[in-house]
Amino acid sequence: MDDYKWFFSGIGVSILSWIKNVFLKKRNKEIEYSQEPEKKETTLKSNVSSFTETDQLTQRFQHVLTLMNFASCYGGFTKAKLAKIMKLDKISSLEKYSIGEEEPSFEFLEQFCETFGINYSWMTEGTEQPFYNNEYIRFEPMDYYDDIESLKPERIYFIRCDSETSEFFIVLKLADWKYIICNRLWHLSKDVGRTGSLQLVSFYNLIKSLRNNGFYSKCFGRTLMLDKFEKLYRGQVFPAEIINFDRMNDPWWDDFTDINNVYPISKNYLKMYGQSFINAQSIVRTELEYRKY
Fold it and tell me: What's the rounded Cα separation, in Å, for the pair 10 and 190?
């Protein structure tokens, strides 16, 4: 036993303490080493997040192309066709942007949105809706006459909602691939107030002006259920999807100008358009009669 007394002496305790420290240092290094892959994974995740904006832009490219092709009645908007419309030198440029191989310049995005009537804020930042238009906002219907004269649209659509207050707005078709949603709602109703009454007169004057200046053949009407009406007005869909869904023209806009019920069909206005339509006609008739004196 005397041979092991040194083990419990001061020297023995020091040796044991040294061995313990060496063991702990080695163990700590092993723990640090085992944690290293986790740190690398965190770094990798941060790198992936830095590409999120580009990925989202690619998704928006693909989404808008899907919307346009879903509504197309003209053989589809292939990338080759879109590139030709944009007058690009190469189809591959649009192809690479749409699949995320290359990031498009702001100049290209602006050209793309301008050509196809796409909301630039939505395309670049994901705000608002794909075909929402915040440029053509006018207070009264007649205020759009100058826009119609300058833009020379192929067609002018008057979109009415099948509701109690019969909201309505205007859509201009500039080409098969470009529509402008005029961002202003009006109501065919008796509960419109003084401002609303003047706007109804303005709409009456707009239709008269279009008819007298050679635009009548370009005018068409649609009456939509609330869900489709809202999707179209908000720019959630490519306008052709809803406008071309039911191609039957609804001449409500023309009948509205028949405030004195001269048209033979006037006896059916109530059944066809509802009481709000009759009330709105009455407001316009009263306003015009008042202006004579």
Answer: 105
Name which of 64, 63, 68, 65 is nearest 244 in CA terms. 68
CA 78, 82, 88, 92 torsion-angle sign? negative
**All CATH 1.10.260.40 domain ranges in the chain, comma separated:** 52-125
pTM for this model (two decimals): 0.79
Model pLDDT for residues 156-202, shown as the tens digit of each residue:
999 999 998 899 999 999 999 999 999 999 999 888 888 999 999 99
Give residue-wise pLDDT tens across range 64-89. 988 998 765 556 788 889 999 999 98
Q: Which two tokens stand for residue 98?
A: 């749409």
**CATH 3.30.413.10, domain 52-125, yes or no:** no
